[in-house]
Each structure stands twice: as structure tokens, then as C-alpha cells.
Amino acid sequence: MIEFYPQIKHAHIGLALLSGALFALRGAGALAGMRWPRWAPVRWASYAIDTALLTAALMLLTILPSGLYANGWLTAKLALLVAYVVLGVFAMRRARSRAGRAVCYVAALATFGMIYSIARAHHPLGLFYGLLG
User: Fold this and answer.
1) Which residues of 106-123 are buried (b: 16+ CB within 10 A; e: fewer)?
2) N or C: which end of the chain has fewer CB within 10 A?
3) pLDDT of residue 133
4) Count of other CB atoms within 10 angstroms of residue 125
5) Rounded percentage of the chain residues whose pLDDT exceeds 70
């Protein structure tokens, strides 16, 4: 499967950006009181994108040598992914107040940004790694 690595990597990157962009739009729309972010087709599109993203991630995980993950950057990404999902759920529907949803929305976007920076740096500190050196 290594011969498909470039295509899978590009699909993973594109799907990650698409997933983040859709969440950002849905969250902003929900905070603005719009109904379209909760429409079934929009939710299904989000689920489909996220499922394809996870599939591509698992494919990359099986293709690449385990030594690439030795410094813990993938573990940090996965831990932040769980936090991102939980914050996203609270931002879209679980938080009790609009202010609570807004705080969770901003925190989820910041978490997504950190996940992105960790992926780019291949280091658990992400964008902060460059500041230390």
C-alpha cells in the first residue's frame, strides 16, 4: 500500500481541512441562531467526511513505520482529537447556554488549530516547538 501513500496523505489533509471548515461554518451558523447547521443532510455530510478522514488516518497509520511516531506527536494528536470532538458536541448542542456553546466553539477551533500544528511539525508541541528552539 506504500505506493498509494501520496494519494492517501493528500486525501487525509484535504478531508481534515474540509472537516474543520464545515465545523467552523456549522458552529458559527448555530451560534447565530440559524437552523441549517442542524439539518440532517448537513449532519450526514459531516459524518461522511469525518468517517473518510478517520479511514485515511488509519490507512496512513498502517502504511508508515512505527518509528515515525516515536516522539509522541501522534498520541498528542489523538488526545486532542477526543477533546475536539467533545468540545464540538458541546458547541453544537450540549452546552446549556449560548455563552457556553460559544466558549466550547472557540475552544474546539483552537484545539483543531493545535491538532493541525502538531501534524505539520510532527512534534507534540506543534507550533510551540519552533518557539523553543
Assistant:
1) ebbbebbebbbbbbeeeb
2) C
3) 61
4) 17
5) 98
